Amino acid sequence: MASPAFAPYISFPGTADEAFRFYADVFGGELQISHYGAFPTEGFPFQPPQDAVAHAELHGGRITLTGGDAVGPDQPEVASDVYSFLIGLETTAEANTLIDALVSGGGRVAMPFALAPWGDHYGQVTDRFGVLWAFVVPGEHGPGASGADGAGTESGAESA
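== VOC family protein ==
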């Protein structure tokens, strides 16, 4: 399967298989997982656990996501407030369904999903793996709408 031009890659601390199967259940799409045990590893600069995920890809559904298990003595910390994966949806019902699935799967609400001052609905959930997901549903007058007249905030892009 061809990879998209841009796809986030997450190095999990031994939980990639579980995480990607969970994400496929929540977001849908086609999942491919390759474990190190399926490949000859002679000559590798490290000896990976046979059940560790060498590479995983989730395409379609709501997201495109890639990743694998970090290998070595220093496992990465996935949880961070310096990034989030933003998913734009058409309805608040769609957003609430995804938020509920992440929370019921062991996640926690980081920011309640509600009407934001700029006119969109917005919220955040940290899933049980430490990944921060943000959800946005455009306001009544489109993305970035801030008032009843539909005037949005400046985005830095010119309209044609």
